[in-house]
């Protein structure tokens, strides 16, 4: 992991410069990044633009039954761990409770003999800056939950300790399952020189793949096949508009609204990433070719080709006329005026209202394909949250135990009504949403086999799979014959459990089907972080890129304006940044 050490050097040096003006923090203590932007599962599901957290709800049947480790064994002597805490100012507490005196801290003390103390509490919006100051002044808390930039900086400054052995000794079977589910990519993200330096909250791999969602009932009405290439997507969308299948204001392809992203790293509902991918264009990604050359996807000729096609589609009236300025991209979809949009597997939740009333039939496909017939998918980072332990803290096992305890009992607390009046995500120390990276792929595989009668329920291993048992029960009741057709007419939409289960089942069986049945070529970003030059020039380069791309697509600038953009990008800091990243990657 030599590259990560170089990245850490660059990131940390930039961060120290930017933090110098902030002064130093003299607090002796702690931090809890769990509450610096982390959302609870229900909150994520309520926010439409986020991934529904049906797979982010904590809890498990077998968590407490671990063997061969010290998971959930109380310490003989009280272990004290000092932290800080980032708190949403709107968080409410039951009478008599505070962050410093919550039921969670009481339970940890009673059950595990861990005494969590907070040296400071700040707004969750200030937590990242607070930890940055702790890094700069070397006053880290005993444990903290941070993002990648902070993790790499602490690694560079030798401020955190390796936890390979303590993780093996203390981690519950379920926590180990979560971490191992991310494979080599996840382990590389948390390791240096063969040692594990953080406990990650794995991102769902499937959530990084944006597919084409299309009105299957409109395809059927016009006797059309699902499009595969960019030109076919263009043609089908044009036919939707010409036939006015959604009325006079039919939209062929819904794109990002104001505030949404044209392209992104990973999951991007409403984005146009798959059209760029069809040209093997990967804006915002740092990549490396077979010769070892590092390059930035946004300034490549393939990106110009993709922008030219999007401009053509917009001019033809196929892409939403209000793309990039519309206040809500969901509105034309639920109103029945849209034929195509792009997004991850969980977009079945997006259209749950029209799914449940049976008025719209949406299906997902890997499209558009590239000229070689493959679907290229830019992927998300394997994790964005790292729980780390301060170097010198004498009881790192307590950090692992705090996570074990959450994983083992959160769902039980919910089921028993023990946390109805408090927010676990806002108050629990080191809170993260933990899940298997391959949760969706695994669920699809076994739900399909069970639904087709190839296996019995008792044959499916649901250990550590939070929602799969319930999914099996639900699909058994709700799926009608023929079992291999997931059109809405073959679901029992009137069943009393339909509302609470069909959006998720459709998301998996329709939204995840292309990943499993059609396949894709994953594309990974090779660099995340901030170089020295990025600290001062990246914001302007991003603005230049966003404005140029928007103007080209909307016809406000000719396609050749891309060439001027590339020249400016290299001249105004891009070349320096490219050189810095090249040096880091090839060290």
Overview of the structural elements:
It is a single chain. It is built from 23 helices and 15 strands. By secondary structure, the chain is an alpha/beta fold. Helix 1 packs across helix 5 (148-156), helix 6 (164-170) packs parallel to helix 16 (396-415) and helix 18 runs parallel beside helix 19 (468-478). The longest helix has 26 residues, at 561-586. It is globular.
CA radius of gyration is: 25 Å
- pLDDT below 50 for ≥5 consecutive residues: which ranges? 1-65
Q: Main sheet: which strands, in order across?
A: 8-11-7-12
| Mean pLDDT, all residues | 89
Distance between the termini: 10 Å
Number of helices: 23
**Biggest sheet architecture:** 4 strands, mixed
Helix fraction bin: 40-55%
Count of individual beta strands: 15
Q: Based on Cα principal axes, name the global outline.
A: globular
Overall structural class, as computed from helix and strand content, comes to: alpha/beta
**Approximately how much beta-strand content do the residues carry?**
5-15%
Set down the secondary structure blueprint:
Elements: H1 2-19, H2 41-46, E1 79-87, H3 103-112, E2 114-123, H4 127-137, E3 143-146, H5 148-156, H6 164-170, H7 173-181, H8 183-189, E4 191-192, E5 195-196, E6 199-202, E7 211-215, H9 216-221, H10 230-242, E8 251-253, H11 273-278, E9 286-288, E10 294-296, H12 301-315, H13 330-334, E11 338-343, H14 347-350, H15 352-356, E12 362-365, E13 376-378, E14 383-389, H16 396-415, H17 424-427, H18 439-451, H19 468-478, H20 498-511, H21 513-517, E15 521-523, H22 532-553, H23 561-586
Parallel strand pairs: 1-2, 8-11, 13-15
Antiparallel strand pairs: 3-14, 4-5, 6-14, 7-11, 7-12, 9-10
């Amino acid at each position: 992991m030599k590259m990560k050490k170089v990245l850490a050097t660059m990131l940390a040096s930039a961060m120290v410069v930017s933090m110098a003006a902030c002064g130093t923090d003299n607090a002796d203590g702690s931090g809890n990044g769990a509450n610096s932007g982390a959302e609870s599962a229900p909150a994520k599901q309520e926010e439409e633009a986020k991934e529904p957290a049906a797979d982010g709800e904590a809890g498990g049947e077998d968590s407490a039954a671990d063997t061969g480790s010290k998971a959930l064994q109380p310490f003989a002597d009280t272990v004290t761990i000092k932290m800080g805490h980032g708190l949403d100012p709107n968080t409410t507490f039951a009478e008599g409770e505070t962050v410093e005196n919550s039921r969670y801290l009481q339970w940890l003390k009673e059950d595990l003999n861990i005494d969590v103390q907070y040296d400071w509490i700040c707004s969750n919006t200030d937590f990242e800056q607070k930890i940055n100051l702790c890094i700069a002044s070397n006053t880290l808390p005993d444990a903290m939950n941070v993002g990648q930039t902070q993790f790499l900086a602490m690694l560079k400054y030798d401020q955190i300790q390796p936890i390979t052995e303590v993780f093996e000794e203390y981690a519950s079977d379920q926590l180990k399952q979560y971490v191992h589910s991310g494979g080599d990519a996840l382990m590389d993200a948390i390791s240096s020189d063969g040692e594990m330096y953080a406990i990650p909250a794995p991102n769902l791999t499937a959530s990084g793949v944006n597919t084409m969602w299309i009105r299957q009932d409109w395809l059927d009405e016009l006797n059309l096949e699902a499009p595969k290439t960019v030109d076919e997507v263009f043609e089908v969308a044009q036919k939707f508009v010409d036939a006015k299948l959604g009325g006079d204001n039919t939209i062929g392809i819904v794109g990002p609204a104001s505030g949404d992203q044209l392209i992104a790293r990973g999951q991007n509902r409403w984005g146009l990433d798959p059209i760029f991918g069809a040209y093997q264009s990967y804006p915002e990604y740092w990549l490396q070719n077979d010769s070892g050359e590092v390059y930035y996807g946004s300034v490549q000729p393939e990106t110009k080709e993709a922008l030219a096609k999007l401009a053509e589609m917009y001019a033809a009236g196929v892409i939403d006329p209000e793309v990039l300025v519309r206040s809500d991209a969901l509105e034309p979809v639920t109103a029945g005026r849209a034929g195509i949009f792009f997004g991850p597997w969980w977009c079945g939740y997006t259209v749950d209202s029209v799914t449940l009333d049976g008025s719209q039939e949406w299906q997902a496909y890997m499209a558009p394909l590239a000229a070689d017939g493959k679907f290229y998918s830019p992927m998300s980072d394997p994790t964005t949250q790292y729980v780390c332990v301060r170097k010198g803290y004498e009881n790192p096992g307590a950090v692992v135990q705090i996570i074990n305890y959450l994983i083992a009992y959160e769902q039980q607390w919910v089921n028993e009504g023990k946390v109805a009046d408090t927010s676990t995500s806002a108050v629990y120390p080191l809170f993260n949403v933990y899940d298997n990276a391959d949760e969706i792929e695994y669920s699809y595989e076994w739900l399909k086999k069970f639904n087709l009668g190839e296996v019995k329920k008792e044959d499916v291993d649901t250990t550590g799979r939070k929602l799969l048992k319930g999914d099996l029960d639900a699909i058994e009741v709700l799926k009608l014959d023929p079992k291999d057709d997931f059109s809405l007419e073959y679901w029992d939409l009137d069943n009393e459990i339909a509302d609470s289960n069909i959006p998720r089942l459709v998301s998996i069986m329709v939204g995840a089907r292309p990943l499993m049945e059609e396949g894709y070529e994953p594309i990974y970003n090779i660099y995340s972080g901030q170089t020295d030059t990025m600290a001062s020039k990246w914001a302007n380069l991003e603005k230049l890129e966003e404005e140029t791309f928007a103007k080209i697509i909307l016809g406000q600038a000719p396609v050749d304006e891309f060439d001027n953009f590339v020249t400016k990008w290299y001249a105004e800091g891009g070349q320096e940044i490219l050189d810095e990243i090249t040096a880091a990657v090839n060290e």
